[in-house]
Amino acid sequence: MTSSLWWQYAVIAVLVSVSLVYMFRKLAPQLATRLQAAASASLVQPRRMSALQALGRWLRPRQATGNCGDGCGTCGSCGTSKAAAARADVQPLEFRPRP
After folding, report:
1. CA distances from 86 to 15, 46, 80, 82 (A)
2. How many domains does the chain have?
3. DSSP codes of every residue in the chain
4. Which Pfam families match (predicted)?
5. Is 95 part of a structural domain of the chain?
6. Which of 72, 86, 94, 95 has its CA 20 to 30 A from that of 33?
């Protein structure tokens, strides 16, 4: 196998992996967050190397940090988010039968 062919396969593998992770996070966000939190918790163990612990802290989802100041708005306990406030002026549709 030539060197350029190996690089092509490596780039394609990275692109497919990134697109699969993006798709998984869009289609199953709660499951993805739970899996990310589980992976983070297993890496932050005291018996792990400091580099793995740093990776685990970096992987920790924002919802798992318990920081209500980040404005994620996923749990609903932070009050109204900017998106909900922007939707307050939207009028509902009214369907009327034709005369």
Report:
1. 35, 44, 10, 6
2. 1
3. --HHHHHHHHHHHHHHHHHHHHHHHHH-HHHHHHHHHHHHHHHS-TTS-HHHHHHHHHHS-HHHHT-GGG---SSS-S---HHHHHGGGPPPP------
4. DUF6587 (PF20228)
5. no
6. 86
